[in-house]
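Hey team,

Filing this mostly as a record. A colleague (T.K.) asked me to run one chain through the structure pipeline before their review meeting, and I want the input and output archived in the tracker in case anyone asks later how it was produced. No errors, nothing strange. Just documentation.

Input sequence:
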Amino acid sequence: MAKENTSATGTSKKETVAEMKERLNYAKAKGGLDVLLRDLNKTYTKTINTFNKETLRGYLENIGSNEKNLRNLSWYLYYRSQIYARIVNFYANMFCLDCRSVIPDYDLVKGGDANKMLKSYQDTLDIIDNMRLQDEFYNVFLTCFIQDIFYGVVFYDDTGIFIYNFPADYAKIVGKYKTGDLAYAIDCSYFKKYPELLEYFPEPFNKLNNQYLSDGIRWQEMPAEYAMCLKFRSEDLDTIVPPLVPIFNSIINLSDLEDIQAIADKQQIYKLLWVELETINGTKSVDDWKVDPDLLIEYFNRMINEAIPDYISAAIIPGKINEISFPEDQTSDTNKIAKATETVLNTAGGAEVLNGATINNTYAFQMAAIQNTEYAISSLLPQAQSWVNRFLGQLLSNPSKVKFFPVSVYTKKEYKDEMLQSAQNSLPTILALNTFNGFSEKETLALNFLEQDVLQLGNKLRPLNTSYTQSGNDGDKAYNPEPSGAPTKDIADISDSGEKSRANK
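Output structure:
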């Protein structure tokens, strides 16, 4: 039995966040399964409407009144088009929330209180590690690239974090918090459709629903301690439009072309056979048949029932047996689809990665990766950072600030190299640097303590030392093997050889 959680950001029921995840299709399954994605005793349906170019054209003529339709169209294309799904996932996977710096508060006048700073740093790292931001935010970013906006209801306790995706049809932006992230209101009529949620959501939601039932006011502001809202098109808070609307027409054209190609492939193997019912040469009567029609029909029925596959049709006509085929230039149609696919990828960005045939040199790839990274993270990453810091401020009286680095999986190596140079110049980037290697700050400190203080690997494995870590004192030199290749010269030797060279000239 879970303990009662009455914290500001926990649930008010006897259910932890981990248990809430289990109940809402994130459960640890029995029978050898790692994750139970649905209750096998319930029937789930997800209706995806079909769309075409004419429907899209109508939506685009009046975007403001077709926000819901465009969201549904985006979800339809995500499930219908493999290319669209790849583009969306390409951008949603850009983010590296593990690459960060956690910075305690510091007073330039009073200086720093070591114990207070360590307490703030420790508490912040505990929460950040427990939140597993890189994993939990994937669905947030994915939803933003599909429908432009994500409305979340956030629950947190010592078992982790759970972000409930509140439907965009029942939510609206109402403003911003002081930290810069968005505030929103919910339509409480949603709880009429799903009343079971109120059994598990904390008490503030029951209050919102009761207020709606008493005064009839549907729209109620989401309590700040549970609210998360990110919007890709942050420059326009009034209109909710999927970010990739400009390529919808191309995606639909590509899907239509694939359907046409499928028909052409079917036609290519289709054949029509006919049996000619011949007459006697020289006869003037149309009924003077060479073969009795009844006998011919008997054999014809046996042929169509026993010998002809589904993709061949047959008929009886006056004449000989012949065939009709429908050949197609399959190479030409395949090239059309490949060209259309490349056009879509080039238009949407990411073609250098998603379509390997377009990669021609390393520099072009790097520049494209930078541009794609800027497009993907420039709006959403600052919003995610603002929300994280506001959330930490609700849990801690003296939180440290979290700073996410503006990198993607395609650009973090270059950024890491720059940070390494900063560390070598004695700038305070060592802990942040190792987050680029996939280690959190606590993991870095723990491993450093283990290796240096406990196992003393720095002394036992001395060849691991580099010139950067070696002592400059002759009496306490670390092991420094000669590099392979030509022998080294000291500065005097180099200077002397230079002088002799100039004198000979």
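Quick notes for T.K.: Residues 248-268 form the longest helix (21 residues). DSSP finds 20 helices and eleven strands in the chain.
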